[in-house]
Amino acid sequence: MPAVIAPFAAFAALILAAASLGGGFYETVLIDRVWPGNPALIQPSRGGIDRKRFWMPAHFAFEVALICALWAAWRHAAARDWLLIALGCHLAMRVWSFAYFIPRATAFEKAGDLDAATWARAITWTRASVWRTPLDLGAVVALCLAVSALARPA
């Protein structure tokens, strides 16, 4: 049964990882370039976007799909290796996010208008945030290779 589920779970994880990558590009290219000058854009209490409404379900769904794919493909060595690489990329991004990005993003969302020091921290945050994208991209590439491996006999 796991061998039947594996390609579907891996493909679901791939689609969800691609959606997260797209969300990351959207934030990097559109939102992060603007919000330090207009903090209300990311402050839900002031009518701004609530990023948690996308990111929390997106990460939860991806992580469930990835865990299912790992379980189902465990006996398929090539797919398992690529799934573990995807997990490593995602885990590195999530640990970095929980340690640095999320606490600061929460503070920016509650800050109101930014003074000069907070604005400088916001600029640093947006510049550093760009570097999460390669980790997401790494997960997407690894998942593509896992799906490809599952399409071939073990």
For the record, give the distance between the C-alpha atoms at the N and C termini, rounded to a whole number. 15 Å
Arithmetic mean pLDDT: 96
Radius of gyration: 18 Å
Helix content: over 70%
Question: What does this entry look like structurally?
Answer:
- The protein has one domain (2-151).
- The protein starts with a helix and ends with a helix.
- The longest helix is centred in the middle third of the chain and has 34 residues, at 77-110.
- With 154 residues, the chain is mostly helical.
- α1 (2-31) packs antiparallel against α2 and α3 runs antiparallel to α4.
- The protein has helices at 2-31, 52-73, 77-110, 116-129, 133-151.
- It contains five helices and no strands.
Supply database-style keywords.
77% helix; 154 residues; mainly alpha
